[in-house]
From TrEMBL:
Name the UniProt record assigns to this protein: NAD(P)-binding protein
Pfam hit, one: ADH_N
Organism listed in the record: Aspergillus caelatus
Membrane-spanning segments: none
InterPro entries reported in the protein's UniProt record: ADH-like_C, ADH-like_N, ER, GroES-like_sf, NAD(P)-bd_dom_sf, Zinc_ADH-like
Protein origin, superkingdom: Eukaryota
MF GO annotations: oxidoreductase activity
Enoyl reductase (ER) domain location: 19-345
Length: 349
């Protein structure tokens, strides 16, 4: 049994006034002795997501517990186990799942880390053994930490497409760049939108051939017409939709008949007035709208297997790595949307 009895953890201040601290570092006792099926994880890296910044600034569309712990991604090492743990062992490298009630497609509950319960921005975590997945052995802690949320979401969003098909990915954030990696590994033709030519050119250079088709959604507000032009009027097979109500109808308009829009994000904020043509468009385009909410434990296991099989690495979609102590600054950086890809907190041991 490890001798650690307390943890350092960042809790939200829930002060949403611009310019005030959004998180505070506190020391807390660990829940010891461990429940018989629980594992104690020493955290090595936590990756941030848009929702961490959004929740810290009071913007989450779903309820959150007061003064909760941010973070729904972590990679760490098991340092102690309850007496009946059988699925994992001390020394295993693991990542918890993001929604602890979403184990399989038949699960009925919902409990997202960092919202319905405390998240991962802490030196140590305790989870039931059934809620952690082993991480690929070829990845370091920083790269492994991006898999549960951005990775499993991108994996769920791309399900069903096959080699040679076309995909439109929106933005250059965490989910988008992870989707880019999976789409490239799956042999898909990729269309990518961003508000920034600089970001688009950087990604285009990085990913090389076959060339990613890029569109600036800020300078080309009718970007869906450009997608249609580039696909000979057909539209793409699948859209990874990150904008939400502000862009959904446009996304449907450039999806091929019978294609899929995977609704992942809500970055454009609530814009119900832009959904007026939803029904006529969904009928006209015969489009399938698929809601994505992370993925199940089984999905996360499948993704880990795919990453191991392909020996995929993620250094090219990591924007920056910050020390754990700089969590406040890193959350603000994500809130400002300055990153390309993932922002990670490294615990330095
Ligand atoms: N449903 C789920 O399971 C799930 C899971 C994870 C995340 N999400 C949601 O998915 C979205 C992306 O999350 P993330 O963590 O990847 O965010 P992120 O890393 O913060 O990336 C956000 C990026 O998206 C682009 N963007 C901003 N506003 C946009 C808009 N109106 N339309 C299209 N693109 C826009 C920007 O890229 P450019 O600067 O290149 O324009 C921005 O940098 C968020 O809404 C998040 O809450 C949902």
């Amino acid at each position: 049994m490890a001798h650690v009895t307390f943890r350092q953890v960042f809790r939200r201040t829930d002060d949403h006034t611009p310019g005030t601290p959004k998180v505070k570092l506190v020391r807390e006792d660990l829940p010891l002795p461990l429940h018989p099926t629980a594992v104690l994880i020493k955290v090595h890296a936590v990756s941030l997501n848009y929702r961490d910044a959004n929740i810290a600034n009071g913007g989450n569309p779903w309820p959150v517990i007061p003064h909760g712990v941010p973070g729904n991604d972590a990679a760490g090492e098991i340092i102690a186990v309850g007496e009946r743990v059988s699925l994992v062992s001390i020394g295993d490298r693991v990542a918890p799942i993001t929604d602890t009630e979403f184990v399989s497609a038949r699960s009925t509950g919902r409990s997202w880390l960092a919202a319905n319960e405390d998240g991962t921005l802490a030196t140590h975590l305790v989870f039931d053994e059934k809620l952690v997945t082993k991480i690929p052995t070829h990845l370091d802690w920083v790269q492994a930490s991006i898999i549960p949320c951005a990775g499993t979401t991108a994996w769920s969003a791309l399900k069903g497409v096959s080699i040679g098909q076309t995909v439109l990915i929106q933005g250059t954030g965490g989910v988008a760049t992870f989707a880019l990696k999976l789409a490239r590994a799956s042999g898909l033709k990729i269309f990518l939108t961003s508000s920034s030519d600089e970001k688009l050119n950087k990604i285009k250079d990085q990913f090389g051939k076959p060339e990613i088709q890029t569109i600036n959604y800020r300078t080309q507000p009718d970007w869906h017409k450009e997608v249609l032009r580039l696909t000979n009027g057909i539209g793409v097979d699948l859209v990874v939709e990150n904008g939400g109500s502000s862009s959904l109808v446009q996304s449907m308009l450039c999806t091929r008949r019978g294609g899929t829009v995977s609704q992942v994000g809500y970055l454009g904020g609530p814009k119900p007035e832009q959904l007026k043509e939803f029904v006529s468009t969904v009928i006209d385009r015969r489009v399938n709208i698929r809601g994505i909410n992370g993925g199940s434990k089984h999905d996360q296991d499948d993704l880990m297997a795919a990453i191991s099989a392909t020996e995929m690495t993620f250094e090219d979609i990591i924007d920056s790595v910050w020390p754990f102590e700089k969590s406040e600054e890193a959350i603000e950086f994500v809130w400002q949307g300055k990153q390309i890809g993932k922002v990670i907190l490294n615990f330095g041991q």
